[in-house]
Amino acid sequence: QMHLVESGGGVVQPGRSLRLSCAASGFTFSSSTLHWVRQTPDKGLEWVAEISSDGSSKYYADSVKGRFTISRDNLKSTLYLQMNSLRAEDTAMYYCARDRGNDDYGNWFDPWGQGTLVTVSS
Amino acid sequence: DIQLTQSPPSLSASVGDRVTITCRASQSIGNYLNWYQHKPGKAPKVLIYVASSLQSGVPSRFSGSGSGTDFTLTISSLQTEDFATYYCQQTYTIPYTFGQGTKLGIK
After folding, report:
1. What is the 8-class DSSP label of residue B11?
2. DSSP B83-104
3. β-pairing verdict for B10-13 and B102-106
4. What are the tens digits of pLDDT across the range B8-48?
5. Are A68 and A81 in contact (CB under 8 A)?
6. Rounded to an integer, what distance in angstroms lies between the CA atom of residue B46 and that of residue B48?
7. How would you list the strands of the sheet with B4-7, edge to edge?
8. Which residues of B touch A4 (CB under 8 A)?
9. Measured between beta carbons, which residues in chain A are less than 8 angstroms from residue B96?
10. Across the interface, which of B30, B45, B87 has its CB nearest the CB of A45?
11. What pLDDT digit, counting tens, does each position of A64-102 carry?
12. SS3 B41
């Protein structure tokens, strides 16, 4: 059964950094495109970043571009999100998700992890 | 960015009711539209992908339709376990965007 488990969330001061991890099991991690998505009460679900299966292609939401870095370790079946220069508006539940489908047919996210909470506050 | 507008934002219904949620895109997205169910403290779960394909393991009372800019999610006969928040998502172009959600509650 496919499974994703996020970790690394916590309370951090504005301007500081945090690294999230997402451990995968039950599917071929090294063949999968992966995403980070966050959820806030105000903005709902917001896509954050995508990384290709080999890590060569990365895409970011404008709201995090230049501050967040998505990466992966295919030997450890783990996805990461390095978050620098954190702001209060980055406070959210962060989810990792696997991309299914393809560019021609269409793609969707499955499965998702249960999330890790990041709170940016002084 | 492509905006997705869901309606209604919230809905109260009874077990056995037929429920329809709509999602309108700010531009044509073909059939690159997915529907997710989210319950508090749990991982979001895909129900319908590419507008009308039922995810394996999802009950057949869920169905999706539409193309272009207008899409619907229908639950034919509401069950207790269906009370949750539902989101549409477009994967036509990055940044992928979500609707604001429809919270389905018990009447």
Report:
1. E
2. -SEEEEEE-SSSSPEE---EEE
3. parallel
4. 999 999 999 999 999 999 999 999 999 999 999 999 999 99
5. yes
6. 6
7. B4-7, B19-25, B70-75, B62-67
8. 43
9. 35, 47
10. B87
11. 999 999 999 999 999 999 999 999 999 999 999 999 988
12. coil
